[in-house]
Amino acid sequence: MNTVLEKIKKMGIVPVVVIENEKDAVSLADALCNGGLACAEVTFRTAAAGEAIHLMKEAHPEMLVGAGTVLTVEQVDRAVQAGAEFIVSPGFDPEIVDYCIEKKIPVLPGCITPSEAARAVRRGLSVIKFFPAEQAGGLAFIKAMAAPYTSLSFMPTGGINPENVKKYLEYDRIFACGGSWMVKGKLITEGRFDEIEKLTREAAEIVKDIRG
Question: Is the pTM value of this prediction over 0.90?
C-alpha cells in the first residue's frame, strides 16, 4: 500500500476541514496535531484552501495534509503545488482519477454504487471514499458493496459523528473515516481552537480504543 495511504489508515479518522480564512490554518494545525490527529483533508470549497494547505505543511511538516472536494484537474495541480499529499473527490470523475494515477498522486474518489466501485477496481485502486455515507445507506450498504469487491477498502464520509464512528471503525473493511465534528466551521471562525483540540483528542482516543 502507498505510504500516504498507510498513514491515513493509521490515523483512523481524517478531519475534514473548511477554512474560510487562511489566517486560521496554523492554529488549526496546532490543535489537530496537539490533539493526536496530525492529519487534515482541506476542502477546496473556499478560496483560502490552497494557501491553508501551504501554511499547515510549513508549520507542521510532519502533518499529513490532503485536498478534498476536488472537482477539476486544475485544482489537483493547485493542491499538490501547495503541498497536498492526497486528493479526495466527492464523486468518481474519471479525468481526475486517471490524472492522479498518471502523476502518482494518491486519490480517493467518491463512490456509492457498485458500478463506480468497479471503475475503481479496474484502475487498480484499493481505497475509495464512500460519500455521503449515512445518507447513502451507511455501514449496511458498505458491507453489501464490499462483498463482491474484495480488494477494496472504504473511507466513509458524510454524517459520521462520535455516536456512529465506532461501528464503522470496527468493520475491518473500513480504511478510515472522514469527519468534521471536531473541526466545525463555527469553531474555526470563532477561534475556539482549545475546543477543537479537545474534540480531536477524544476522536483520537476512539481510534486507539478500537484499533490499538
Answer: yes
Q: What is the rounded distance in angstroms from the CA atom of residue 166 to the CA atom of residue 108?
A: 21
Beta strands 39-43 and 64-68: pairing type? parallel
**Could you report the per-residue pLDDT of 143-161, keeping only the tens digit for each?**
999 999 999 999 999 999 9
Q: Residue 212 — very low, low, confident or very high, per pLDDT cuts 50/70/90?
A: confident
Give pairs for 103-106: CB < 8 Å, separation 24+. Answer: 103/76, 105/76, 105/80, 106/2, 106/4, 106/5, 106/66
Grid cell for residue 130: 464512500
41 is catalytic: yes
CA–centroid distance for 72 within its chain: 17
Pick the catalytic residue: 22, 57, 85, 129? 129
**Annotated catalytic, 129?**
yes
User: Which member of 22, 41, 85, 197 is catalytic?
Assistant: 41
Q: Compute the distance between CA of residue 200 and CA of residue 31 in angstroms, rounded to an integer.
A: 8
Strand locations in the chain, DSSP E? 13-17, 39-43, 64-68, 87-89, 107-109, 127-130, 153-156, 177-179
